[in-house]
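Appendix B. Raw example, untouched.
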Amino acid sequence: MLPRKSVRNKDGSRKKQPEASPPKGSDDERGAARKKTTAFSVAYLKSLHRQVAGDSLRRIFKTPFASFLNCLMIAVAFALPAILVLLSNNLQTLGHGWEGQPRISLYLESKLGRDQINRLRVEARDDPDVEQFLYISPDEGLNDFQKKTRMKGVIDALGFNPLPGVLELTPREGLSAEQLNELMKKYQVKQGVMEARLDQEWVERLASITQLLERFTVILSVLLGIIVLLTIGNTVRLSVESRRAEIKVIKLVGGTDGFVTLPFLYMGMWYGLGGALMALLIILGVLAALMSGVLELAALYGSSFTPEGPGLAMFFSLLAAGVFLGVAGAAVSCYRHVRTVEGQPV
């Protein structure tokens, strides 16, 4: 190999040689080209989706009344199971509030003397399974009943007090359901006790009703989800039929089925989102209409129960369900109809 000649300037310093560019077709050149192509593809896809999404939304607003009816149908289908879920959650909350302090109510005979009442109170005080007890006389029960129900005129018309004396027992914590039932039966056979009631029985019945309501909610959600799919699918099918000539032209110039389907997928997404947002408004309206009645009913029972409203979990769940069902319904409809535009059955 011949030695490389040194090129110098007029003042004797070495002249800086220009760096050699990589040969055409080298790895550096191919890597730069790939990077440029990838950046171009991502930017193109973002621009395409933004443009298609905006165009689909504008087409929906061109028919406001029909679009509103479609969204309203979807909203009702979303709102019904959501309201049932809220009802189930509130029943569980109410049941848990009662389950923490079960009480045994002993309804005493009206002719029971003071000595017999004191005897029952002493037995309850000495019972290790009873944490505390409270005796409510007939007069105290009548006064409390009149304050809560405002039926003083009806009671005065009777001419006597129909309410018996009540001895409320609060069992100690940690007793099982079987032990609570045994404790209730123990006092039910006492002399002077007309009837014994355990609040836990009401909680167990409420739990059974809640479980049945949850199963019904699941079944109803599936059925209404199918209705949403059919509604969006039928709407997209009509839109495909109205744009049949446009779809044929796009296919003639090389447009793929995916490119043709994309606007309809965004249309289904917008319908699903619109229905989910309207469903939230329906739920809030129903809660606002029922709130005063529920609070008044809870006050009659001396409870501070406040109904639970839709939280962030339900909000995002409805939005996610709207997007999923909207895109799924549009995809099913497009798979059936877009591919048949050129007369090629699926």
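End of appendix B.
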